Amino acid sequence: MGKAWIKARRHDRFYRAAKKQAYRSRAAIKLSQIDRRIGLFQGGDVVVDLGAAPGGWSQIARERIGASGRVLAVDLGCFVPLEGVEFLRGDFRDPKVQATLFERLRRPADIVMSDMAPKLSGHRAVDVARSVDLGEAALSFAIRALRPGGSFLVKVFQGDGYPEFLRRVAAAFEAAKGMKPSASSPASAELYVVALGRL
Q: Which is it for the CA torsion 162, 164, 165, 169, positive or negative?
């Protein structure tokens, strides 16, 4: 990352807000904004956070669901322990990791969420395609893991493949739409697909 990017980030009000509230990432502010708009979390929810590191989304989920809820976080990389968050290291697309996840869940989840993004290649079409592929994998997992009426939230990049992906999500839920919280950079192609009411 260049010095200009680091300097700009330090002056970003959402980055500063995340730091002030001791969140692990600026992404925590995005999830907080989405939750305020749609009421994603309820007390006692069981939440699966795919691609959870560094843990900003898990922090928000933990806060919103209270002591009676559970957060299961999954990531390929290291994850500094978070109080009240269960962590599983591995690729959630691996059948063995999924089997372990379902064992730990013990019951269908209320929410499956994913803020994963592919390693950027610099080629927009390639990055969008990789992003949608990750979204498809998260959707496939969510359809299996969620209870009827459960919710799904996933980050994808806008571009070719996105409208078709949104249609596939909508086919499995009562309602689905893309949204962009104000904490998302206006220049970013990222969108958050929110789906409520697993059919």
A: positive
Domains of the chain by residue range: 24-198
Alpha-carbon distances, residue 165 vs 89, 121, 137 (angstroms): 27, 21, 11
Q: What are phi and psi of 185, to 5 degrees?
A: -65, 130
Per-residue pLDDT of the chain (199 residues; tens, 9 = 90+): 445 434 444 446 655 655 556 565 888 999 999 999 999 999 999 999 999 999 999 999 999 999 999 999 999 998 999 999 999 999 999 999 999 999 999 999 999 999 999 998 989 999 999 999 999 999 999 999 999 999 999 999 999 999 999 999 999 999 999 999 999 888 889 999 999 999 9
Cα atoms in the 13 Å half-sphere on the side-chain side of 143: 13
Exposure of 199 by Cβ count < 10 A (0-12 exposed, 13-18 middle, 19+ buried)?
A: exposed
CATH superfamily of 24-198: Vaccinia Virus protein VP39 (3.40.50.150)
Active site positions, annotated: 155
Do residues 131 and 156 touch, judged by C-beta distance below 8 A? Answer: yes
Q: How many CB atoms lie within 10 A of CB 62?
A: 22
